[in-house]
Amino acid sequence: MIKVGLTGNIGSGKSTVCKIFETLGVPVFYSDVQAKKLYQRQVVKEELFKQFGDSVFNHLKEVDFKKLAAVIFSDRELLNFINRLIHPLVFKSYHKWLDEHQQYSYTLHESAILFEHHLEKRFDKTIVVYCPQTIRIQRVVKRDGISENEVLKRISNQMNDQLKNSLADFVIVNNDTNMILPQIMEIDQQLT
Q1: Does the pLDDT value for residue 73 go beyond 90?
Q2: What angle do CA 106, 112, 149 make, to 5 degrees?
Q3: Mean per-residue pLDDT for 55-61?
Q4: Is the Cα dihedral 159, 174, 2, 21 positive or negative?
Q5: Same domain, yes or no, for 175 and 105?
Q6: pTM higher than 0.85, yes or no?
Q7: How far apart are CA 150 and CA 148, in angstroms?
Q8: Domain assignment of residue 95, yes or no
Q9: How far is residue 46's CA from residue 156's CA, in Å, rounded to a whole number?
Q10: Same domain (yes/no): 164, 182
């Protein structure tokens, strides 16, 4: 089985591309979805409480992701703390998931920060979903209901598009002009 890492900067359309691969029968591991599940674990909550007190929790003592994002995307050290806490747990879940999907010719692992944390070494191939920053900002403001300034803070923690594209084996251009389906079909043919 070929292990494929799929990444792209915020608002690039990673989820849309992954959904299309899924319709082709390709299993997709969504690292962000898995990470959010991990925040329910007591051990993770305890580590967050040690670092942040109750400032990132809601009245039900659950993690408030908007509060957490506001803190960590303004402080690189706190973002690194979260990554050190969550990433090993995500990869443990991923390896278990891989064992359950061995019969496929290839699988996708979606991760926004694949290259930023040198995770590409864990994959046989990588795909970047690329979209110009101006379009990405508009998409995220609309999707998440946050300000342009908040989007720019998140973008500042990601690798620039040109470098990310240069590191990938495949680049899918999702700029509202290029059709993504033919690009995905071509990659699927090469991987199968």
Answers
A1: no
A2: 160
A3: 93
A4: positive
A5: yes
A6: yes
A7: 5
A8: no
A9: 28
A10: yes
* CA nearest neighbour of 167 among 27, 19, 5: 5
Whether 54 contacts 48, CB under 8 Å: no
pLDDT at residue 176, rounded to an integer: 83
Do 54 and 122 share a domain, yes or no? Answer: no
Handedness of CA 38, 153, 160, 80 (dihedral sign): negative
The two tokens of residue 185 are 């079909």
Q: Which two tokens stand for residue 97?
A: 């998931």
Question: Is residue 155 classed as helix, strand or coil in its secondary structure?
Answer: helix
How many separate domains does the chain show?
Answer: 2
Query: What are 104-159's pLDDT values in tens digits?
Result: 999 999 998 899 888 999 999 999 999 999 999 999 999 988 899 989 988 888 89
Same structural domain, 19 and 107: yes
Phi then psi for residue 7, to 5 deg, are -140, 175
96 within a domain of the structure (yes/no): no
Q: In the Cβ-directed half-sphere of 79, how many Cα atoms lie within 13 Å? A: 15
Q: Which domain holds residue 21?
A: 2-27+101-191
Q: Which two tokens stand for residue 136?
A: 């990405």
Q: Are 56 and 64 in contact (CB under 8 A)?
A: yes
